[in-house]
Design brief:
CATH superfamily of the largest domain: AhpD-like
Number of strands: 0
Largest sheet: none
Distance between the termini: 9 Å
CATH topology of the largest domain: AhpD-like
Low-confidence stretches: none
CATH architecture of the largest domain: Up-down Bundle
Shape: elongated
Mean pLDDT: 95
Order of helices and strands: HHHHHHHHH
Number of helices: 9
Helix content: 55-70%
CATH class of the largest domain: Mainly Alpha
Number of domains: 2
Radius of gyration: 17 Å
Strand content: under 5%
């Protein structure tokens, strides 16, 4: 049982319920993380704006965004975020073997993708990125993408903590 169960619509403030309804796919269920976040309605709208900007308006290739999201979920042992982003990763062109590989050694990847996974690992363990990994990333990306990749790891680390601590399945 979840520590913070998904609320029913009548448990939410009207504006929060409307936002949750707006992000619910036709015939589907509301994303559990957002439905639970709606229990604190003052956070929901700003978070949705931020998350949409990061996911939809970023300059990173979707494949690279999803590699980072999956690695953050793996490092935080968040089953919820892993399962959710495995679907997004497939849509971004990753194969099932590549998705499974994200949970393994970064050496299974090459070039900038290996550096992305290494950056996610370093951020997880040291809260920074080594000069060697940064140099590899900076040789491939312009500053806007470098900013973005740090926030992608932070975003999915935070969501992993949230889903783990709230026991959202």
């Amino acid at each position: 049982m979840s520590r913070l169960p998904v609320p029913s619509g009548d448990e939410l403030r009207a504006d929060a319920a409307a936002l949750v309804a707006a992000i619910t796919p036709p015939g589907g269920s509301a994303p559990a993380t957002m439905a639970v976040l709606a229990r604190q309605p003052e956070l929901l709208s700003p978070f949705l704006g931020w998350a949409a900007a990061l996911a939809l308006n970023g300059v990173l290739p979707k494949r690279h965004h999803e590699l980072l999201a999956l690695r953050a979920a793996h490092n935080c042992r968040s089953r919820f975020e892993w399962v959710e982003h495995a679907e997004y990763a497939r849509a971004a062109g990753l194969t099932d073997a590549e998705i499974d590989g994200v949970a393994g050694s970064p050496e299974a990847f090459s070039g900038v993708e290996r550096a992305l996974l290494a950056a996610a690992d370093e951020l997880h363990t040291t809260s920074t990125v080594s000069d060697a990994v940064w140099s590899e990333l900076a040789g491939h990306y312009e500053p806007p993408a470098l900013v973005e990749l740090l926030f992608v790891v932070g975003q999915y680390t935070m969501l992993s903590w949230f889903t783990n601590a709230a026991e959202i399945a």
